[in-house]
Design a protein that fits this description.
BirA Bifunctional Protein, domain 2; 3 domains; binds histidyl-adenosine monophosphate; alpha+beta; five-stranded mixed beta sheet; elongated; eight-stranded mixed beta sheet; about 20% strand; about 425 residues; 15 helices
Amino acid sequence: MKYKAVRGMQDILPQDVGIWHWLERKARSDLESYGFKEIRTPLLEDTSVFVRSIGETTDIVKKEMYTFKDKKERSLTLRPEGTAPIVRSYIEHSLDKAQYGSKLYYIGPMFRSERPQKGRTRQFHQIGIEVFGSKSPYADVEVIMQLRNMLNSFELEDFTINLNSLGCNEVCKPKFTDKLQKYLEGKESRLCEDCKRRVKINVLRVLDCKKDSCIQVVRNAPSTLDGLCDPCKDHFDRVKEGLSKLKLINIKETKNLVRGLDYYTGTVFEVTHPDLGAQDAIGAGGRYDNLVKDMGGPDTPAIGYALGMERIILALRNKTTSTDTKSEGVVYIATLGDMGKIEGLKLADEIRKALPSVVLLTSTMESSLKSQLRAADRQGAKLVLILGEDEIEKGEVLLKDMIKKDQVPVKRKDIVEELKKRLKC
Ligand code: HAM
């Protein structure tokens, strides 16, 4: 039997991992400069954590979760998203009282059993943030501004931030549900089978359906924005005004943007990128002012978003700028004979201590110089240090430049200085 990765789940191979490290590094440094602290929750949660928050009638809960029973018959689920586990953790550990509880970020894998296609996998990775405790529209503005700045720091510019407001659970959403159900009356036969059911149980989801027939039906549907209550309208107006005063471009008010998770209230947004085809959302988020309370915690407003890392990498694929792993810093030590091997390890130790940013590779194979040089080339070495018996006797190292294709003897005691000069480190 030939083993293969599970369908929809991908290996990230050594030749591709550089861009993942780059993205994670940039995200961490950006988020920490805004005062965010990382939180790491388990990959498995009690299934009810997701059912309660994302919503029983959503596609994620109904069709896409990896749910199973453990030996004690407890129902567990591989997390399909990060917000619900973080809210669970926020409540369990009373993070509302903790020094670092209000601005959290996470980076890690999520699992959804969707049909795999370009930009859609069954294990995917998100970079996300959750901000707890502020009802102010300026919290929305700051989150969207931080999101824009972080995408820019990833060297992404051609994206659009689609913006909408769903209003509150108390007044706006029930009123809109009614209005939308009335609009859809008599049009049910043109909806897909799923949406026929959604009309009765969770009509907002019809606006989210990606089937052509349903898109046609809802084209002229009422907008959530038309029925907002005064406080929700005022909140959304102030968010838009703030974004426009900060000259945040690429923002587009998008009626019918409702998001596929039930916990949202008020401001919602989705970032799309033109190079991605059908799965064009590189990230999305919004307010969820009722969720902490609904899950048993204190009444705490909140807002957050998550970016899909695979999709960001797809959008970056045509760029070959700072995301490339550079080979300038790679030095290879080729050694001959037993003495050479030991001296090589000693030399590597000295160089690693003096120049920690240099990637230093040593040959532990007892192979010819020619095959060691081939290995050095394959691994992207710019410089090779050659140590054989002759060099050891003379107290020298032969330094070979793999790009200029020349070599010079260097005194062993001068080698660190010489590397510093040549690698500019
Ligand atoms: P979401 O819209 O379900 O929101 O996912 C956010 C992003 O994750 C999507 O825009 C997309 O880039 C990526 N994504 C989702 N599913 C897949 C998939 N199957 N394959 C590849 N990428 C995918 C949430 O998850 C919310 N928790 C976001 C949030 C945080 N809202 C408030 N706080």
